[in-house]
Amino acid sequence: MTVRGENYRPPTGSFSWPPSRPASGDDAVYMQTQSTLPRLRTKLAFWLLLGMLSTALAEVTVASQVAPFFNVEGWLIVFPVYALHILVLGHLVVVRNKPTVALLWTAGILFGFYEFLITKVLWSPPWTAEPFRIAGVAIPELLVIGLFYHAFMAFLMPLWIGERSLANSHSIPLPERLGRFLTGKVRWMAPALFGLVAGAAAQDRVGLSIASFALVAAGIVWWRRSGHNRWSLAELLPDRREFRWLAGVLGIYYVIATVTFRPEGLPGALGWFSMLVLYAAAIFLFVTLERGRRGHPDPSQTAPRLDVPIRPAIVAMLVGLVAGVALPPDPGTVPMIMIIWGGGAILGLVMLWGTVRSARRSMPEQT
Length: 367
Hints:
Structural class: mainly alpha
Number of strands: 2
């Protein structure tokens, strides 16, 4: 009997993939099933685009790096940080588990903690000589950068946008209130605020920011026109063997960056101890949430669909961008500070509290 390979492709968003070799030893069926997976070169292109999306949303939005894709430093130093983290942590959340908001956010917190060893920002932020510290950790930076910004802008949103533009699945959920915010009567507000912050941060460098996002958009258009968006996110992210290689590269990157980048920002014993405690707490949350999901298998791997109108969102973002650029340079930084630092600290604490509650609900069910 002839079996066509496409008949054995898993349902969209399935995470029990790749399949194990059939017990019957039907090698023909097994090989044709395997042929439906994307090739390595296709996955490498996806990894490139996903890493660029994470880099752009995290760095270009606040003008920390307005042109990371147009210089050697951006490709050799900035891009690898975001690409390696989102691929390694994305494997843990998407390929090995059914993604939930709490699990995604906890992985995003681990993502943001790279600001300890690699940049030293959570110990010694370079923009202030006397940071507010507790137990050797810069608290405002921890609340905003560690608990909110990278979890949202560098991990959750790139995965959500990337899946909907580059893959054929809907497995990444958004916080419920954010979903209503993006699709409700004030759905124009989020892209407008995004544009306002980006414009106020970039000011006269806004052309480079637009060019960076345009390059990412061009890559997405090329991917879709090439027909590569027929695979699920789980199929495009690293498999177990690829995950091990990438995790090893990321570990080497950490060692090199810890020693060579801003070594003067390294703390004393108290700062190291505090970092280890925070890492241990985040890993404990992640493992608890992960075990809770495995204890309650759910055959559905589809997150609620959100119909976000693209054209109104682009118009609102451009209006916000123009408004941000039009602000005078000094007052122009005020809305960015208020939105990112004030709102980010509150949202980081709120999301952390929700994540802890989710982990607590999982714990009794394991006994």
